[in-house]
Amino acid sequence: MRTIVAALAVLAAAVPAAMAGWSTIASDVGTAATGIYFTDATTGFLPADENGAGAEIVKSTDGGKTWTTNEPHQGGLLFLDVAGYGENIVVAGALGEEYSIDGGAYFNTSSGGGSGQCVRAVGARGNPDAIAVVGEFGLFNPKNGVAMSTDGGAIFTTFDAKLFTDARYGAFPSAKTWYISAGNWPEANDDKPSNDDFAPKNDDFSDAPSTITRTPRFELRKTAKGGYKPYVRLPGRDAMVTGNETIFQAQISLSTDAGKTWNSVFENKGDFYANGIACIDDNNCCFVGEADAGAAAGARIHCTNDAGANWNRTLFLPGPQNSLLDITATGTAGEYWAVGGTLSSLDANATFYHSTNSGNSWTLDSTISGSYASAVDCRLPPPVIRESTAPSCCAIDGF
Ligand SMILES: *[C@@H]1O[C@H](CO)[C@@H](O)[C@H](O)[C@H]1NC(C)=O
Ligand SMILES: *[C@@H]1O[C@H](CO)[C@@H](O)[C@H](O)[C@H]1NC(C)=O
Ligand SMILES: *[C@@H]1O[C@H](CO)[C@@H](O)[C@H](O)[C@H]1NC(C)=O
Ligand SMILES: *[C@@H]1O[C@H](CO)[C@@H](O)[C@H](O)[C@H]1NC(C)=O
To answer: Would you say the pTM of this structure is higher than 0.90?
Structure first.
């Protein structure tokens, strides 16, 4: 893993996405990041971590080619994901949210949220209703689900998504329709925390030990093939988890009344855990999942065309080396990108799967040697002119 740990790369697909392969457009952006968000063709944000410097929000104004820190943040903050709309930018992290109302010039601390590994705009991307963070919220009787802000990220209200496992990612196709993906992997595979502190040096995976290293930020798990695979891990998670920690579990919980009531619309106990989820609209959604052990080891995509009533597994990549971490809808009819990689003890290759028929079928569009794509985002398609050479979709190699 040494080769991909040192360089945090930004990976991009040019416009129009359907015609272009993915390539690396920036390297060595930081040492760890798990989210990426572009406001428009030129302006993008990454929640990054610099060795020794702690958490920071880095910004690009040239379509992702160069990235600069626009504000120093104190060490100890752990930023994991970023999203926004217009001049509003919200960063989620293990110790709370921060928000900007001026295009990222200044970030202030949000109130009411908690530990979130995913933040997404709610509703139409160009005209959102709110911004949502998925994770665990509150120290006492924590809510495992979603925190919602209707004022650009200043104040969050929390909702428990009635899950039997950890809330991980969300998709919010409209103001009232919220999908939460959840999952856990067998804790029996885990060691005691050996690096249970916030020292940045422990975020460097290049000194992977012979067993398993866990930091509050990430956990390294040994794969069946003897390699290492990183997982985002929130501090205090063990204390809050309600699920069965001896098996892989995946779950999708759906609310169609803005978080008042929830239905468990997908459950798997034993095969895999769920990662990113994305929706084209209230009825059409897909999520990615994976397991690196067991009879059903491999990466997969499950999709619904009927608002969660049925989920078909429309892609399965068998084998513990296959990983899918995130998925996004592009805004073009029927189009999704799902990203992840193949991992071994020696190297990793980022993979980019594409669907243009609402997730019914997938093609492997691109592979990038030496990378591992952990998050993907597509900006709104340009309304008129499509001959821009700026990237329309970006992914981050966060490890
Ligand atoms: C940051 O938020 C706090 C709490 O809402 C507020 O009192 C303060 O004025 C804000 N700071 C800036 C620079 O906007
Ligand atoms: C966890 O899953 C295992 C395997 O299916 C099962 O035997 C066990 O009873 C479950 N434990 C709980 C607490 O649900
Ligand atoms: C990555 O791709 C290279 C070829 O570019 C191949 O040799 C290697 O086995 C691949 N590794 C994984 C984990 O897929
Ligand atoms: C799921 O499978 C059914 C039956 O083959 C099909 O009608 C439906 O379109 C499929 N949905 C997805 C999302 O693949």
So the answer is: no
